[in-house]
Design brief:
Length: 304
């Protein structure tokens, strides 16, 4: 009896497949290919995530090893974790002071780059004159000049105006090096905003400054988030300019301070790894909160 039932079920399935149209077979094939493509994407993303997390994992495990542990074990011994490396990096290396210096320099520089970049981009985007075209070309050319190529005259100028080993000296230098890209991004974004918005504000009795501050500036949030993240990460991780301009350990930012602390503790990689992780925490946290604005700004800038 069961054999007859099986024969009937098999014959029924064969009949249904025989009556299946060509279009239905193609749709079923496309669904299978779509599922395979999704699994391939998931596998690729998993590999990328592992490649991104492995260096952090190695830094964390290294920061928990004692000074006499020079092994390459991927899993540290839980009974011998050296939590003192983190306190030593804070107390001996002065990492928190350098973090505070970096926060001050990064915050002020990013604010100046955003304000000056948006203010300079507005007339360049709205007035398409030959002079403004030359100014835009000059700004683009400034983006192609490596800052280190003018390090000698720049440092000489800062020494003459007593700007070395000062917050305002490094802030001015980093603002000048990051401002061209900010102006370029803001100009491209403002050009996509309809000029009718400016005309409506002018009809209502607002002057150019009021139109920019009340109408245009609130619409620049996506590109402003992009400029904030790009400028903030560049300034925070700056090593070349900061190491030459800020030679005083009390005024050093995080990148040159970690480098000098790392070179002084090559025999104790645990302390050096702990200092590097402390330096990376603020930017990781900032990116976690601003990543959606960053992606929106990059997409908007590419479309516009």
């Amino acid at each position: 009896m069961s054999g007859k039932t099986q024969v009937k079920s098999i014959s029924a399935s064969e009949v249904s497949r025989a009556h299946e149209t060509r279009e239905q077979r193609e749709q079923r094939k496309e669904r299978k290919e779509y599922q395979r493509g999704r699994w391939a994407i998931y596998l690729f993303l998993a590999i990328v995530i592992v490649c991104q997390l492995v260096p952090f994992y190695l830094a964390i495990t290294t920061s928990l090893k004692p000074a006499d542990d020079m092994t390459s074990a991927l899993i540290p011994r839980t009974a011998n974790l050296a939590w003192s490396n983190w306190t030593a990096a804070i107390n001996e290396g002065g990492i928190l002071k350098s973090v505070l210096n970096s926060v001050i320099v990064t915050a002020v520089t990013t604010l100046l780059v955003c304000v000056l970049g948006a203010a300079a981009a507005y007339p360049l985007a709205r007035r398409q004159t030959r002079f403004n075209g030359l100014v835009s070309a000059f700004i683009l050319s400034m983006m192609m000049i490596p800052p280190l190529s003018i390090l000698v005259p720049l440092y000489t100028f800062l020494v003459n105006i007593h700007g070395s080993n000062t917050y305002w000296g490094i802030i001015l230098v980093l603002t000048a090096t990051n401002l061209p890209l900010s102006v370029f991004l803001y100009t491209a974004f403002i050009k996509a905003i309809p000029p009718a918005i400016d005309e409506a504000g002018t009809i209502d009795g607002a002057n150019k400054l009021q139109v920019f501050g009340r109408l245009i500036l609130p619409m620049l949030k996506p590109v402003t988030a992009t400029v904030v993240i790009m400028t903030g990460s560049t300034v925070w991780n700056d090593y070349a300019l900061s190491s030459y301009i800020l030679t005083d350990p009390a005024k050093q930012t995080i990148a040159p301070r970690v480098a000098s602390f790392f070179s002084a503790n090559t025999n104790n990689l645990g302390i050096a790894a702990a200092a590097a992780l402390i330096a990376a925490v603020p930017m990781v946290v900032a990116y976690m909160f601003l990543q959606k604005y960053f992606i929106a700004g990059m997409v908007a800038g590419s479309v516009k």
